[in-house]
Amino acid sequence: MSSFSEMMVLTKETIENLVGFMNSLVPIMITLMITTGSIITANVIQPIILFAIAFIGNFIIVFMLPFIMISTVLGIVSNISEKVQIGKLAKYFKSSTIWVLGVALTIFVGILSIEGTLTSSVDGITAKATKAAVSNFIPVVGKILGDAVDTVIGCAAVLKNAVGIVGVLVIIGICILPIIKLTVLTIIYHLATAVCEIIADEKIVKLLEQMASSFKILLAVVFAISTMLLIGTTLVVKISNSGIMYR
Predict the structure, then answer these.
(1) Of 15, 11, 45, which Cα lies nearest the Cα of 30?
(2) Which residues contact 146 (CB under 8 A, 6 or more apart)?
């Protein structure tokens, strides 16, 4: 229970750190997207990303982590008590957590991909038309201005990609230690379950198995939200680069 309590706190802190970092990273990337001409994409994607990250992060902290704690307590009570058998309910809570995580991740990536693909094509066509108008209708310096704009957009795209790479590395740096700790604890408890099955009472074996399952759920939570943020960051970079390719 001491290990489980520490991992619950670590998971909560990791999610809060990831959400806080993304709330700082997204406005920077959106600003750089605007400088590359992806104005429509930036205006559509920014509220989607910020809302989805804040909503999913708070949902996990407020609802899912207490659900995991309740399911663990129910499993412990079921293994200790002879009369109260609620192991199935604990298992239902845990399976529900996994399903909710999967659905949230799928919806986030799906919405971001669809909206980004549509808006990036519009941005690309609009920017191309604007450049053609500037080049043709402004006498003497029109073509020079068009080429200069292309150069500025290219430099901004390089800077935006660099910020995206740094963001990915920071996300990995935030979540890698909790993932390693939870993985090691899960393996240790599964190993302890296998060893105790030979020498210990069946209830102790089931209790250790229950705790290993709880650590696995916490690992899934951290892994899911970190994967979601990594995919979100790389999609933002890819979508804005698609707008440049359309040009």
Answers:
(1) 45
(2) 131, 132, 134, 135
Residue 39 CB contacts under 8 Å (≥ 6 apart), including other chains: 123, 126
Q: Does the global pTM surpass 0.85? A: no
For the chain, the distance separating the N- and C-terminal CA atoms, rounded to the nearest angstrom, is 58
Burial of 35 (0-12, 13-18, 19+ CB in 10 A): middle
Give the pair of three-digit tokens for residue 91. Answer: 């298992």
C-beta atoms surrounding 81 within 10 Å: 11
pLDDT mean by block of 10 residues, the chain; 247 residues:
85 88 79 67 66 80 84 78 68 78 77 59 50 51 52 64 82 90 90 83 81 87 85 73 54
> What is the distance, to the nearest Å, from the Cα of residue 89 to the centroid of all Cα atoms in its chain?
28
Sequence-separated (6 or more) residues with CB below 8 Å from residue 11: 65, 178, 182, 218, 221, 222
Rounded CA gap, 240 and 42, in Å?
9
Cα separation of 93 and 230, whole Å? 27
2 class by beta-carbon count within 10 Å (0-12 exposed, 13-18 middle, 19+ buried): exposed
d(CA 133, CA 152): 18
